[in-house]
């Protein structure tokens, strides 16, 4: 049977969770929302809500032991067909893959840039980034294609010899690269201390309802929830795996890497008096590269290490986005893995090219939908609509449709009766309401 090993599962799931989100969504949101108070809030929401919902998604995969659509069908006591449709939230993962791999493509380009001379001021640096986005469609497409080939090659090898093997070496390597940068940041004295106080001394006056909702959204995205990655990987869990401990390890690794990335990024920002509120790609592609440039050759080495760690973080996440739908096509139509992947690949490739063209100046006008470039439409649709809807549906399914006794049997070896009761209550009443609140907010704002 093509199953993960226990450690393979934790690494693969952590590999999915740790991604571009940790590198720029997390530091950016921390930066924009007053630092440490946001981290405290993020931790509370991660443990209070995302953790609860994550266990629900795990139980669908573990109890169903097949792809999300068939697992839901198998587990629902009635209205099987209707419930099984919720498995199609996995299409969200394929949509994310299309634009996410374009961004990993930019990272490839930045690894290349890091070998030569880095831009030394933000105007020059901004111009390089803008030129990649708005004028160099061919370069973007080439880099995207390279990433696309690697990702599909890995998934074509299956869970054990593809996804697990990739994660078993990429995740530790990523961690070592990050450690190197972390120790380098430590040696930067004042900058590092400022980064620490920025990240760890809480200022709760900054927390508004809006920020609570943003932090919850980040917690879901960052743990790859709501698009069927968790149930898909859980279907290949070896028996006897401690579900609670594994989930806590995944969450711990995800937070640790987010915080380390944050410390590295902000140490540089403070050391060279960069702008802490500059967000998103700007923080990483524009600011950070100019800060590296100030260090001469050491800066080039650090830049290569930094972008390579981002590349690894991105690739281990991207493979997880493809697997759910591939698994479904194989089960439903009896396709070989290759055939299923070719179908998904065509779809992802076309959407990916559309994403590139939606930023490329000469064609951008043709790729505007709902007043947004196609790239942003996919991002919005997946993070703000599909992910939260799926999280609500899965928590209702596990909380109200599945039998409580079955869930207790699944979890009883890993948690006490009281803890189980708390989890069950949170799953039924806190998670759906909280997620509904984020969704409503995102739509109305
Ligand atoms: N968790 C990934 C990140 O933080 O970058 C993003 C992600 C991966 C979202 C896999 C969804 C997914 F299915």
Write the layout of secondary structure elements.
Elements: H1 6-17, H2 20-32, H3 36-64, H4 68-75, H5 80-84, H6 91-115, H7 122-134, H8 137-156, H9 158-186, H10 190-200, H11 209-222, H12 229-234, H13 243-271, H14 280-293, H15 297-333, H16 337-359, H17 361-364, E1 368-369, E2 372-373, H18 374-401, H19 404-411, H20 417-444
Antiparallel strand pairs: 1-2
Bound molecules: 4-fluoro-L-phenylalanine.
What does this structure look like?
The chain has one domain (6-444): Amino acid/polyamine transporter I, CATH 1.20.1740. The chain has helices at residues 6-17, 20-32, 36-64, 68-75, 80-84, 91-115, 122-134, 137-156, 158-186, 190-200, 209-222, 229-234, 243-271, 280-293, 297-333, 337-359, 361-364, 374-401, 404-411, 417-444; strands spanning 368-369, 372-373. With 445 residues, the chain is mostly helical. The protein contains 20 helices and 2 strands. The model has no long low-confidence stretch (mean pLDDT 91). Strand 1 (368-369) and strand 2 (372-373) form a beta hairpin. A two-stranded antiparallel sheet has the order 1-2. The structure holds 4-fluoro-L-phenylalanine.
């Amino acid at each position: 049977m093509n199953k993960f090993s226990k450690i393979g599962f934790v690494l693969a799931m952590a590999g999915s969770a740790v991604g571009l989100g940790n590198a720029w969504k997390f530091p950016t949101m921390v930066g924009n929302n007053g630092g440490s108070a946001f981290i405290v809030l993020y931790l509370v929401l991660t443990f209070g809500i995302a953790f609860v919902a994550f266990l629900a998604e795990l139980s669908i995969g573990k109890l169903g032991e097949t792809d999300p659509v068939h697992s839901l069908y198998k587990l629902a006591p009635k209205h099987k067909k209707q419930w099984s449709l919720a498995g199609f939230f996995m299409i969200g993962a394929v949509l994310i893959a299309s634009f996410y791999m374009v961004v990993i493509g930019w990272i490839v380009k930045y690894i290349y840039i890091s070998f030569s001379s880095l831009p030394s001021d933000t105007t020059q640096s901004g111009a390089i980034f803008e030129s990649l986005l708005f004028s160099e469609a061919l370069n973007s497409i080439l880099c995207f294609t390279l990433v696309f080939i690697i990702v599909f090659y890995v998934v074509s090898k299956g869970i054990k010899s593809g996804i697990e093997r990739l994660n078993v070496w990429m995740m530790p390597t990523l961690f070592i690269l990050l450690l190197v940068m972390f120790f380098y940041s430590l040696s930067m004295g004042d900058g590092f201390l400022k980064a620490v106080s920025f990240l760890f001394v809480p200022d709760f006056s900054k927390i508004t309802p809006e920020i609570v909702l943003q932090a919850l959204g980040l917690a879901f995205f960052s743990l790859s929830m709501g698009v069927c990655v968790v149930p898909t990987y859980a279907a290949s869990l070896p028996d006897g795996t401690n579900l609670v401990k594994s989930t806590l390890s995944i969450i711990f690794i995800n937070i640790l890497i987010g915080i380390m990335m944050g410390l590295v990024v902000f140490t540089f920002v403070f050391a060279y008096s960069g702008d802490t509120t500059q967000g998103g790609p700007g923080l990483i592609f524009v600011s950070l590269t100019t800060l590296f440039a100030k260090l001469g050759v050491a800066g080039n080495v650090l830049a290569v290490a930094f972008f390579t760690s981002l590349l690894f973080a991105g690739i281990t996440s991207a493979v997880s986005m493809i697997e759910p739908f591939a698994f479904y096509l194989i089960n439903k139509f009896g396709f070989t893995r290759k055939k299923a992947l070719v179908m998904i690949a065509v779809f992802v490739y076309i959407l990916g090219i559309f994403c590139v063209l939606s930023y490329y100046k000469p064609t951008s006008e043709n790729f505007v939908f709902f007043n947004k470039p196609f790239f942003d439409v996919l991002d919005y649709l997946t993070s703000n609509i599909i992910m939260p809807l799926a999280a609500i549906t899965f928590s209702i399914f596990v909380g109200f449709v599945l039998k409580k006794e079955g869930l207790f049997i699944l979890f009883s070896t890993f948690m006490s009766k009281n803890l189980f009761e708390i989890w069950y209550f949170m799953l039924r009443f806190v998670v759906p309401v909280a997620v509904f609140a984020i969704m409503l907010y995102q739509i109305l704002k």
